[in-house]
Amino acid sequence: ALHAGDHLVLNGALRAPIDAWPFRDRCFDHVVLNHVLDFTPVVAVVVSEALRVLKPERELWIAGIGPMSWQRWR
């Protein structure tokens, strides 16, 4: 569940359709995909949704560890 933290920050885990996040376009300063791409068969769709909800000139952070992470989606 997502919850509001200090300084208008949302913290938590999002459970939503992989291709239809429940947020409007360009509403976030940062998106962190922490081990998300390790477990999805459609990396391009997830990255596309992340880029859709990011404000212009903001940051997308991707983290992954293990044999199924960086090499798989390079």
Task: Kindly describe this structure.
The chain has helices at about 45-55, 70-74, and strands at about 1-5, 10, 30-35, 55-65. The chain is α+β, with helices and mostly antiparallel strands and about 70 residues long. Strand 1 and strand 2 form a beta hairpin. The radius of gyration is 13 Å and the shape is globular. The protein starts with a strand and ends with a helix. The mean pLDDT is about 80.
Brief sketch in words of this structure:
With 74 residues, this protein is α+β, with helices and mostly antiparallel strands. It is built from two helices and four strands; from the N terminus they run E-E-E-H-E-H. The radius of gyration is 13 Å and the shape is globular.
Structure keywords:
74 residues; alpha+beta; two-stranded antiparallel ribbon; two-stranded parallel ribbon; 20% helix; globular
